[in-house]
């Protein structure tokens, strides 16, 4: 539920340098491993058969070495290594960036990472490790038509990026928290490259000069916790006949008496005609006495499929329960219903139900 971000963005950046003392680097590392097993019943228009037991793994090893100098400045890196082979058969790096921070002026991240607008958003609370406010649910109920390739865009998720760029070379500044209010601004020279150098940037080609801003307000009033967030971003499209893409979104969470309610709405206005997207998440979670948390969540999205005539629709629902088993260990069970459909039926409609469980390890 992105509370980690609020802690991260409250760290501040120092501007004065001083020699380091003899302390050693903190060679920190950690990661997570989520193993899902589900039984799916899927209806497809073609010969494909997705019924039966399916498995899905999401896992990373995350390296976070850091050092704090005598002047209070902290330097560190974050390198996230996928624990699975990529499509090319080689281990992949998800994100890789450097941070400079202190307790005075804020924090700078520089490297291959998502934007401030993406990281500062909130939406419906997610219970367990299976996400429907993202393309993850397609591991059990596949997408149809144009929806299959729309990563980091509002048709499938309220956590958006400009034109769906992801982990490109970027620099971001976060302010410290002022009475619960935090802001961030990001700049990326280009949308090319995903945790890979794409330099030098030719500013006559593709999508360049991407700016994102995000704001987040989190505060407690008695027994009620409130989080509000908003983001906006744009870039300069150099593709002939296209406009400059934009994305924007708003979200909130309200928590009291063990309940957390949340929702978000986002749009991607893309450079290519007839490919705009919109979507919203809504949900509730209940943190029961003891180790159990329960949640009900929905995501509804719409994608203009490029034809100018038809749209693709994304509609997923999840009922979930999560039990803490011990430090860094939890067990998730969930029921999914999902549907993606195309107005013209050219690409066919797919809908299905999956009953799944997962063991989640975080270390």
Summed up:
The protein is mainly β and 363 residues long.
Describe this structure in words.
This protein is mainly β. 3% of the residues lie in helices and 53% in strands. It has two helices and 17 strands. It has a 16-stranded antiparallel β-barrel. The radius of gyration is 21 Å and the shape is globular. The two termini are 18 Å apart. The N terminus is likely disordered.
Could you name the key traits of this structure?
single chain; about 375 residues; mainly beta; 16-stranded antiparallel barrel; 2 helices
The helix fraction, in percent, is: under 10%
Number of strands: 17
Report the order of strands and helices. Answer: HEEEEEEHEEEEEEEEEEE
Mean residue pLDDT:
89
Largest sheet: 16 strands, antiparallel, barrel
Ends: how far apart? 18 Å
Low-confidence stretches: 1-22
Total helical segments: 2
Instruction: State the strand order across the main sheet.
Output: 1-2-4-5-6-7-8-9-10-11-12-13-14-15-16-17
Structural class: mainly beta
Q: Indicate the radius of gyration in whole angstroms.
A: 21 Å
Estimate what percentage of residues fall within beta strands: over 45%
Oligomer: single chain
What best-fitting shape do the alpha-carbon axes yield?
globular
Structural topology:
Layout: H1 3-9, E1 29-43, E2 52-63, E3 66-68, E4 74-85, E5 91-101, E6 107-112, H2 116-120, E7 169-174, E8 181-190, E9 207-221, E10 224-237, E11 246-256, E12 259-269, E13 277-287, E14 292-304, E15 311-326, E16 329-342, E17 350-362
Antiparallel strand pairs: 1-2, 1-17, 2-4, 3-4, 4-5, 5-6, 6-7, 7-8, 8-9, 9-10, 10-11, 11-12, 12-13, 13-14, 14-15, 15-16, 16-17
């Amino acid at each position: 539920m992105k509370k980690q971000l609020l802690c991260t963005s409250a760290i501040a950046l120092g501007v004065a340098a001083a020699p380091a003392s003899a302390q050693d680097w903190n060679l920190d590392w950690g990661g997570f491993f989520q193993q899902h097993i589900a039984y799916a019943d899927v209806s497809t228009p073609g010969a494909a058969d997705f019924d039966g037991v399916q498995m899905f793994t999401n896992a990373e090893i995350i390296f976070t070495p850091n050092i704090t100098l005598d002047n209070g400045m902290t330097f560190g890196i974050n390198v996230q290594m996928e624990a699975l082979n990529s499509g090319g058969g080689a281990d992949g790096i998800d994100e890789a960036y450097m941070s400079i921070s202190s307790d005075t002026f804020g924090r700078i991240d520089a490297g291959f990472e998502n934007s401030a607008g993406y990281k500062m958003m909130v939406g419906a609370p997610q219970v367990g490790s299976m996400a429907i406010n993202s393309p993850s649910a397609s591991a059990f109920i596949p997408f149809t038509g144009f929806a299959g390739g729309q990563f980091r865009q509002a048709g499938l998720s309220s956590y958006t990026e400009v034109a769906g760029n992801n982990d490109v070379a970027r620099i971001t500044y976060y302010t410290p928290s002022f009475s619960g209010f935090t802001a961030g601004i990001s700049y990326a020279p280009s949308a090319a490259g995903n945790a890979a150098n794409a330099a030098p940037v030719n500013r006559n080609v593709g999508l360049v000069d991407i700016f994102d801003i995000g704001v987040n307000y989190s505060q407690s009033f008695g027994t009620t916790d409130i989080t509000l967030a908003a983001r906006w971003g744009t870039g300069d499209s150099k593709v002939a006949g296209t406009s400059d893409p934009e994305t924007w979104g708003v979200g909130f969470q309200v928590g009291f008496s063990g309940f957390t309610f949340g929702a978000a709405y986002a749009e991607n206005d893309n450079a290519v005609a007839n490919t705009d997207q919109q979507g919203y998440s809504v949900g509730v979670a209940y943190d029961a006495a003891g180790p159990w948390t329960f949640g009900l969540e929905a995501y509804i999205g719409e994608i203009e499929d490029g034809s100018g005539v038809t749209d693709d629709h994304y509609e997923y629902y999840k009922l979930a329960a999560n039990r803490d088993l011990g430090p860094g260990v939890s067990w998730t069970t969930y029921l999914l219903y999902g549907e993606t459909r195309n107005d013209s039926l050219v690409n066919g409609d797919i809908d299905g139900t999956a009953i799944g469980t997962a063991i989640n390890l975080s270390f």
